[in-house]
């Protein structure tokens, strides 16, 4: 496969690090313990998939730790991060992705850049990886279902990749599309969601220094169940905004039609900023259960923007976050 060379980025355009440290409030009172599901109707798969085995032999990555992006919370274990997942392309139970994602082939892999940019085309993953020094960042990860984790990701700023393609002034949004291949992704043979999985951001959100293009966890290549070989993570947003196994990024003038709000517009919005004051119609978002602490541990209070308000609150000045949930 012949792919064009990755466009150059000027050093002055590389994302500036902004110092911050995370606060973590004390444990909150115990509230509801029931686990939520994203899908409204019944029809969840029966539990019983085998427990995840960490991807033995995942290649070690070269990276430096970025001390400016380190949540003070204790990171979850590798087993928790890679064994309790949402990746509906491999089934809807939390252990399905680890059990079934072995069928995904992550090499060769290419990323198509399309839409409102001066440079578009299809690029090899290897070239992208060569061009972006990797760093470790420990991020809080809050799922809309009410659970959370703390994850030492390895990746690089999403904005540094996007700037290479010189988005035009018409580019107001960025759309991320997951691989569509029912052969490799058995969950796509079922109509649980409208495949492929599509997510999107406003372009200023995508350019925020917190937005991370993730390629690894705990210093090793990302296991398939976490969205190998390329997934984003936006730690101030509910986890569903962070699309996995991305094959296409499109700059657009219009807000993209994204998977969850298209399926259930009353339950999931385009913004999906973590917000303890705006409940999901079927459960409270005021607190969260930290994976690994056990079902009966007290829940933690959820923080506005998942604790990242200092970095991102200015993006939403003047926006009604109750309407734009
Ligand atoms: N991306 C794709 N393609 N398919 C999915 O089902 N689930 C989302 C998000 N990205 C999902 C996805 C949801 S709901 C969450 S909470 C996170 O991935 C989970 O990421 P993790 O399994 O790495 O914790």
The structure class reads alpha/beta
Instruction: State the shape.
Output: globular
For the residues shown, what is the average pLDDT? 90
Number of domains: 1
Task: List the topology elements.
Blueprint: E1 20-21, E2 64-70, H1 78-83, H2 96-100, E3 110-115, E4 121-124, H3 125-131, E5 135-142, E6 147-157, H4 158-164, E7 173-178, E8 198-202, H5 203-206, E9 212-217, E10 220-221, E11 231-233, E12 246-252, H6 259-263, E13 287-290, E14 300-301, H7 309-312
Parallel strand pairs: 1-2, 2-5, 3-12, 6-13
Antiparallel strand pairs: 3-4, 5-6, 6-9, 7-8, 7-12, 9-10, 9-11, 13-14
The structure holds ligand MTE.
Ligand MTE binds at residues 38, 85-89, 141, 143, 178, 197, 226-227, 239-240, 242-244.
Top keywords for this entry?
about 325 residues, Sulfite Oxidase, Chain A, domain 2, 7 helices, 14 strands, about 10% helix, globular, binds ligand MTE
Structure report:
The protein is an alpha/beta fold. It has a single domain (11-316), classed as Sulfite Oxidase, Chain A, domain 2 (Alpha-Beta Complex). It contains 7 helices and 14 strands. The protein has helices spanning 78-83, 96-100, 125-131, 158-164, 203-206, 259-263, 309-312, and strands at 20-21, 64-70, 110-115, 121-124, 135-142, 147-157, 173-178, 198-202, 212-217, 220-221, 231-233, 246-252, 287-290, 300-301. Strands 1, 2, 5, 6, 9, 10, 11, 13 and 14 form a 9-stranded mixed beta sheet that branches. It has a 5-stranded mixed beta sheet with strand order 4-3-12-7-8. It is globular and about 55 Å long. It starts with 19 loop residues before the first strand and ends in a 13-residue tail after the last helix. Residues 17-34 and 42-54 have low confidence and may be disordered. Residues 38, 85-89, 141, 143, 178, 197, 226-227, 239-240, 242-244 line the site of ligand MTE. Ligand MTE binds at residues 38, 85-89, 141, 143, 178, 197, 226-227, 239-240, 242-244.
């Amino acid at each position: 496969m012949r792919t064009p060379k990755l466009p150059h980025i000027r050093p002055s355009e590389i994302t500036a690090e902004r110092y911050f440290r995370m606060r973590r409030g004390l444990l909150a009172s115990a509230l509801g313990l029931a686990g939520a599901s994203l899908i409204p109707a019944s029809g969840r798969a029966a539990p019983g998939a085998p427990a995840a085995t960490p991807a033995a032999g995942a290649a070690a990555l070269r990276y430096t730790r970025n001390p400016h992006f380190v949540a003070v919370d204790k990171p979850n274990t590798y087993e928790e991060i890679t064994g309790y997942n949402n990746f509906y392309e491999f089934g809807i139970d939390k252990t399905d992705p680890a059990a079934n994602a072995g069928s995904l082939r992550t090499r060769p892999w290419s990323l198509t850049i399309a839409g409102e940019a001066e440079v578009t085309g299809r690029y090899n993953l290897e070239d992208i990886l060569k061009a972006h020094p990797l760093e470790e960042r420990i991020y809080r990860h809050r799922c809309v279902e009410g659970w959370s984790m703390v994850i030492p990701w390895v990746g690089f700023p999403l904005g540094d990749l996007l700037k290479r393609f010189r988005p035009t002034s018409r580019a107001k949004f960025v759309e991320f599309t997951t691989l569509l291949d029912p052969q490799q992704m058995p969950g796509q043979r079922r109509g649980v969601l409208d495949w492929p999985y599509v997510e999107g951001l406003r372009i200023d959100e995508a350019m925020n220094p917190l937005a991370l293009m993730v390629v690894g966890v705990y210093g090793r290549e990302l296991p398939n169940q976490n969205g190998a070989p390329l997934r984003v993570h936006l730690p101030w947003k509910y986890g569903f905004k962070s699309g996995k196994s991305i094959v296409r990024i499109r700059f657009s003038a219009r807000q993209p039609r994204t998977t969850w709000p298209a399926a259930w517009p009353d339950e999931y919005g385009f913004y999906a900023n973590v917000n303890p004051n705006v409940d999901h119609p079927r459960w409270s978002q005021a607190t969260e259960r930290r994976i690994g602490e056990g079902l009966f541990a007290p829940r933690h209070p959820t923080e506005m923007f998942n604790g990242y308000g200092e970095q991102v609150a200015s993006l939403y000045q003047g926006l009604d976050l109750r309407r734009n949930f």
